Amino acid sequence: MKKLLFALLLLASAASAKTPDEEDILDKTLDSGSPYYHTALMMRYNAGDATLTDEDYHYLYYGYAYQDEYKPLETNPYLDKVLLLAAAIDPERPNVETLEALISAGQDALAKDPFSPKLLNLMAFAYGALGDTAQERAYSDRTNGIIRTILASGDGLTQSSPRHILMFDHALDVLAAEGLPADKSRIVSRTVEFVPLVTPYVVEGKKRKGFYFDFGRIYRNKPEGYTYKRDRTWQFNNLKPREYK
Fold first, then answer.
1. What is the pLDDT of residues 100-133, one digit of tens each?
2. Do residues 211 and 195 lie in contact, with contact meaning Cβ atoms separated by under 8 Å?
3. In angstroms, how far is the first alpha carbon of the chain from the final one?
């Protein structure tokens, strides 16, 4: 039985970080003559184009913040349905009808959040369980491309070098993909949150208690009095990621 997939990724170092440059992203993603024109990139992404590079994913992900479709504070009514269906799946004996229902609901949910790592990962799992290896690999590529993009945006170890996200849930999904269960986050500035880990770990002799994430894009057009309700991560029902060799 194929399990949830995810190619484990190394953390991007501060030296290799590709912090989003808003002026650069605007110039390149809104210019129809640019190789990073967002409409064209989105067509390739939705078509499962395996030739998309990390540079393409950088402009695809952060350029989405300037598209009319980007509405990060709207509820996603299809997400709960996806998670409920996924939670009911026996990973060793998945029901075909449930898998097909998950894919249908997942496509609706992705229309609201096309770069959600947990949704992309669940779609890859469902297609793989149905034996559609082409779609499984396509969704796996999307999952890994988005997570690499977020990891490359900053090391997340300080408030001045946060990882940049388009949705709060993306931060939790990245940490879940790294096998780092997160505790309740706290806001530390107008645009940065700190997400503590349930269990700190040691890297190069230093204890890492959590990671910083820049959520500034989410609240650019925040409605007055809006309160965000954080969602769940993609880890449940003992479905574990698998690695492509």
1. 999 999 999 999 999 999 999 999 999 999 999 9
2. yes
3. 17
Q: Which residues contact 101 (CB under 8 A, 6 or more apart)?
A: 85
Residue 81 covered by a domain: yes
* pTM of structure: 0.85
For residue 146, being part of any structural domain is answered with: yes
The total of structural domains in the chain comes to 1
The answer to the question of residue 191 being in a domain is yes
32 in a domain, yes or no?
no
Give me the domain span that covers residue 184.
73-214
- DSSP for 63-127 reads HGGGSTT--TTS--HHHHHHHHHHHT--TTS--HHHHHHHHHHHHHHHHH-TT-HHHHHHHHHHH
